[in-house]
Amino acid sequence: HVAGTAAGYGVRQDGATYPGPFDTTVNFSNLRIGPGMAPEATIYALKVFGCSGSSDVVDAAIEWAVDPNQDGDFSDHVDVINLSLGSSFGASFDATTVAVENAAKLGIIVVASAGNTGDVHYAVGSPGMANGAIAVAATSIDTTNPANYGDGPVAAFSARGPRRDDNTL
Question: What strands lie across the sheet with 109-113, from one edge to the other?
């Protein structure tokens, strides 16, 4: 989903891939799905998780993004790293946080989850708490009612989406 939003070509009404142009002349009414923000970008997908559990290779993936051909020359680094992941209650000394800070110092834009702990105030996870990271999160609308924690009404912009009238997603 993130890759399509960022770099998808778009889909015409007939279901075919939209071939362009990717400029101000795009007629969105002729498209089933509009192109992403940078449809001619190159996307690299690095798998850091298995079927369940946590990961111990996120740092290695960030290292690859900083120097894809591993020649010690960082000029070929990626432009953006998206990390839709994170641990609860981050720490500045967490290895992944340090890796994100170092990537950001090289000019890489790093976007990370602010946390996956739910509606907990003042708790940003690692690596989203890195000084150079752009941390992103969504939250429930009513966090004053303990009955809503984790399962309460959600903001319309939340990844879980708005609730229906029957109180289900």
Answer: 80-83, 109-113, 133-136
d(CA 18, CA 39): 10
- Asked if the bond preceding 39 is cis, omega within 30° of 0, the reply is no
d(CA 154, CA 84): 19
| Angle (deg, nearest 10), helices 58-66 and 95-105 | 10
Lowest mean pLDDT among 62-71, 90-99, 130-139: 130-139
Confidence of residue 144 (pLDDT cuts 50, 70, 90): low
DSSP character for 158?
S
pLDDT at residue 168, rounded to an integer: 47
34/9 Cα distance (integer angstroms): 7
How would residue 90 be classed by pLDDT, with cut points 50, 70 and 90? confident
Among candidate residues 95, 89, 103, 88, the one with its CA nearest the CA of residue 133: 103
Which tokens is 44 given? Answer: 């690299």
